[in-house]
Amino acid sequence: MKIIHILFLFTFISFTICHASVNDFCVADLKAPITNSGYPCKPVKSVTSDDFVFHGLVAGNTNNSFKLGVTAASVTNFPALNGLGVSTIRVDIEEGGFAPMHTHPDATELIISIQGEATVGFVTPTGVYTKVLKSGDLFVIPPGLLHFVVNSGKGKAMGYAAFSSENPSTQITDLLLFGNNLPSDLVAKTTLLDLAQVKKLKAQFGGSG
To answer: Could you tell me which residues are beta bridge partners of residue 87?
Structure first.
């Protein structure tokens, strides 16, 4: 019986390897509807070298409440990432700016500091993990954990982040709390915030109620 199990496992692995070698890549057909398993592949005959390069990972617009600019290269604008489980962003943070508390439920994030100084960190039910990063430093954030980045130096801070997903989702705590139509008194009661402050924040983040 053990030999049968080993043979079955060997056959399964061999089939998987063969299948992977046939499908070297799956450049997304962005004109087709996305499914639970991602985008369908473009016909190989229509794939060119241009599909594997991305232009435009430039400084983002920092004219916002957070003084934060983000430009992304994910499967939605870089279709060659389809099925590869990777993506990246460029992050620019003006002096005094920050990336607010947020999560990526479906991806690990690797922060790569390039310019300036940034304080980064994440929190768990049992601990807080923070570090001041300078050029050349890296910091990893496990998937789903609440985290932040603050420009804690002089001048602009800039870096990149790599994700273990070709299309990572982002949930920003401030927008979830104050960019909605939940009644302000309910938000105040469930967050222990002052009602006037909740209304002020709702006005800032486009919420109502």
So the answer is: 163
